[in-house]
Design brief:
This protein is α+β, with helices and mostly antiparallel strands. The chain has 3 domains: 174 residues, Protein Transport Mog1p, Chain A (3-Layer(aba) Sandwich); 112 residues, no CATH class; 132 residues, 3-Layer(aba) Sandwich (Protein Transport Mog1p, Chain A), CATH 3.40.1000. It contains 12 helices and 29 strands. Strands 2, 3, 4, 6, 7, 8, 9 and 10 form an 8-stranded antiparallel beta sheet that branches. Strand 26 and strand 27 form a beta hairpin. The radius of gyration is 26 Å and the shape is globular. The two termini are 28 Å apart.
Length: 544
Amino acid sequence: MQRGSFLIITPPRVIVAAMGCWLLLAYQKWRRLPLFQSKKEASKYGEGNVRRVLSESALSLLPVRVLVDRLSPGWSAQPPIFCPPHLAIVPLQQATRIANSCRLIEGDCFVTCEGPIASLLWSDPEETDVSSFLLEYMRCTPYMVPIANSGAVIMTLHDAGFVCDTTCFSHVVVDEHEQVAVALGRNGPYVLALVAMPYLSSPPAQSDHDTDEEHNFPLTVSHFTPSDLQCLLKACLPVPVADGVLLPGTPSGSQKGCLRITCSDGDCSLTFVAQLPLVVRCAENGENFLFALEGIPLPGGLIVLDSTTVQSIANGTAIDDLFPRKCHKHPPVSSLFRLIYMERRAHDNGDSTTHVSCTHGSEPNFQVVDLPTKAGDVSVVCCHPNIGIHFPISTRNGVVHEPVLTDDLILMYYPLGDEKSFKPSQVFEGSSAAPPLFTVRRLATLPSTWETSPGTEEALIHNVRIHFTDWAREKIPSTVCDISGFRCVQLSEEKEGRFCRTYVVPMGGALTVLRWETQTRELEMHLPLLYSFLDTLHLENPQV
């Protein structure tokens, strides 16, 4: 059985089962979901304990916990589906045969968790118009747009006649035409949605023929009712959020990724560190600045560094003095972006000497080195010490995300822009808005069935095929190669119009998995991105 297939690139089947057709089509168009959470976890936990372990892990990895004992008899919460960078889904399922006194609903129900949403990190809950925010959230979430545009009114649970014993959900919207009900709420920077369909506010009267007394089957209905929704609401409990973002089960080392920016101006070369998910953009077409940082927590969502700004920082001006925050809710810019290293070229008696200033302390230390960059150069490298990786990123379109809603440490790099900023190629008519993507995932422990000896290439390929492919059904092309000095196995697969290449790298007693995917018909166009990424990638044993 496999630890978690990085080769399955179609939307998970459970999503298909959990959503109505119109909602599913909108959802699929929005996200091309790789299957980051496989049901085949037996290699790590043992066949009999798979569902129990996954269900328990969901309680601490997500901002919501579903208490099964509060659900109606026969209902259960399924293992979560992680859809990085920002989404997780918990399907709720009813057994096909339950006690005769229970209703068997021929409908679908699931809870979605999305976040962390940057605008919620820096907002004051007491000053936020929750109804307006949730309505805008639905309008900006493509798979919910049909509901937001249906004319249905978003109401508080109290006004709609519901009671929620916890703070998971505060509002509800019912689309009578599409027969769907969505309860909405927030837990810190996460938005929660409970979807039930088909849903009828005033269900028709049931007939005595709806029960099969001979076979002792339950009453079968084709819809959820307000009482069903009320029961589901009471079963959801918010999970505490630590440090404003992290959850109790968030992997150790999460949110440690950063961007290292090196620029040269005049006699100075400076290195900054910017926190993810800030985006770095360099000047183009003669623009008169060195680089800019984009991100919601920044003043006005943008700060621009030109030659004057860089020289001021080099001369000791505090970053917060140059870029003061506009309201007390926003963090100081220095907590998101700071100078960590500086080199200055001095000229004494005609001799050129280079001095280095390390800005970790209040007093700089100096030593002689060579300047690494030319005047005006800007380079950006993404680093994550707990994954053990760093690589240069594009300062024109590159975007890096580090998901929180996941069971492993993950970095996601979009070299041509993410799903919000990517501009599809015009080369192929009808090209979809699915950008090429690099994913780096660190599996902290080896599967229990991973054979550690002998260390032959055949054994390594066997290990990877068993744990990362559906080897019993199909043979995925595989070969042994080296990346950044580490021996690894390369896998390639094409499925449903998407091409995926995966590199499984044993290192540091664990596994690092590199995955690259793009549309098959754009493979030749985007293949240089893969080669460039591999050529400039650096791996090392991660920090523990």
